[in-house]
């Protein structure tokens, strides 16, 4: 086990309080104010741990910019409206989206009041550079977003929110926890089952409950129902839920042990879109999709946009454009176009959302 700055704190915490939930472990590993993964680094790109769609192709952000414009027109062109991104990374997606708005929908751009929900000081600095001319306002959480119609973009955001996990035993569903085996971190189970969990499952099955994501989805759903607007959530996830251990760690573009280097690896859990859809609908929002990323981007015009870019590029640039676009809509078993899903939320009585 790698000796990371956070590991010593986890050992002391567990020694005093006993084993901690997966939810608390994820929250500390990703968001610890001093040693948290997202607090201390830029994790993106070839030099980082993973690459997201906006870093692969400019077309991704451009299409979401045009999606924003079409949704804004459907809302009746409110001015101002809150243009919000949750977890904006380096600001690449939003920079591409704003460039598309500047060219195709300058009236929408003029009405946009930009807000970014970001906790990482390192990534905030990158966003400030990328969006220097856009005057964004930063937020630690959605609670401080101003009222008014909002169009919200969330790419690879929900998968990084802490989850709770339960394992089926002969006693019932017992919550998974992180404890100590000597000096090493180890998974274990709470001694007593959680009676509220009544799902079906074979012995050993693991149930992942995205409690934080569900609370946030309800909050956003209530806001959209009250104020109007829309949300596009794009993430690695499952259409129908189920019982499986979807907790994973990534370091240097490879899968890693989630307990190996706390605070130094990215931790995620596959998004349960079915659960999020139920939460949003229960809060009064209208759910669109989910659909695969390939279907969503193709419906928005990815093939046409790629064709126009290739036509203006030299052969080397054109090949790069094609490769990036193809990667976004790759429908093979492990391809982004298949693994990633897109769910839309809107206020009641609004027109249908593009792409669904």
TrEMBL record:
The keyword Metal-binding does not apply. GO terms for biological process: methylation. It holds the Pfam family Methyltransf_28. GO terms for molecular function: protein-arginine omega-N symmetric methyltransferase activity. The keyword Flavoprotein does not apply. SUPFAM superfamilies: S-adenosyl-L-methionine-dependent methyltransferases. Keywords: Methyltransferase, Transferase. This is Methyltransferase. It comes from Methylobacterium terrae. The lineage of its organism: Bacteria, Pseudomonadati, Pseudomonadota, Alphaproteobacteria, Hyphomicrobiales.
């Amino acid at each position: 086990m790698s000796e990371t700055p956070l590991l010593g704190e986890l050992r002391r915490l567990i020694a005093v309080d006993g084993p901690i939930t997966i939810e608390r472990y994820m929250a500390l590993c990703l968001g610890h104010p001093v040693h948290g993964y997202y607090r201390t680094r830029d994790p993106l790109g070839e030099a980082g741990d993973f690459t997201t769609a906006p870093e692969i192709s400019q077309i991704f952000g451009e299409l979401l910019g045009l999606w924003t414009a079409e949704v804004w027109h459907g809302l009746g062109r409110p001015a101002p409206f809150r243009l919000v991104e949750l977890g904006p990374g380096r600001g690449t997606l939003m920079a591409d989206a704003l460039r598309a708005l500047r060219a195709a929908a300058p009236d929408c751009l003029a009405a946009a009041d930009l807000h970014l929900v970001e906790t990482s000081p390192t990534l905030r600095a990158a966003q400030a550079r990328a969006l220097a001319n856009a005057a964004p306002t930063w937020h630690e959480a959605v609670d401080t977003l101003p009222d008014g119609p909002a169009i919200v973009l969330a790419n690879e955001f929900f998968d990084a929110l802490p989850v709770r996990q339960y394992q089926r035993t002969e006693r019932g569903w017992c919550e998974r926890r992180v404890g100590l085996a000597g000096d090493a971190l180890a998974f274990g189970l709470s001694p007593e089952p959680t009676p509220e969990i009544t799902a079906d499952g074979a012995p050993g099955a693991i149930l992942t409950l995205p409690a934080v994501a569900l609370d946030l989805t309800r909050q956003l759903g209530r806001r959209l129902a009250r104020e109007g607007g829309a949300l596009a959530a794009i993430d690695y996830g499952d259409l129908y839920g189920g019982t499986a251990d979807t907790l994973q760690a990534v370091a240097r573009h490879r899968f890693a042990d989630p307990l190996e280097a706390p605070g130094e690896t990215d931790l995620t859990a596959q998004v349960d879109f079915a659960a999020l859809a139920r939460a949003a609908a229960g809060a009064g929002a209208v759910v669109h999709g989910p659909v695969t990323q390939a279907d969503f981007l193709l419906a928005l015009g990815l093939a046409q946009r790629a064709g126009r870019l290739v036509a203006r590029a030299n052969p080397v640039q054109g090949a790069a454009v094609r490769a990036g676009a193809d990667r976004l809509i790759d429908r093979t078993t492990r391809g982004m176009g298949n693994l990633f899903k897109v769910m839309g939320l809107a206020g009641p009585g609004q027109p249908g959302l593009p792409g669904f």
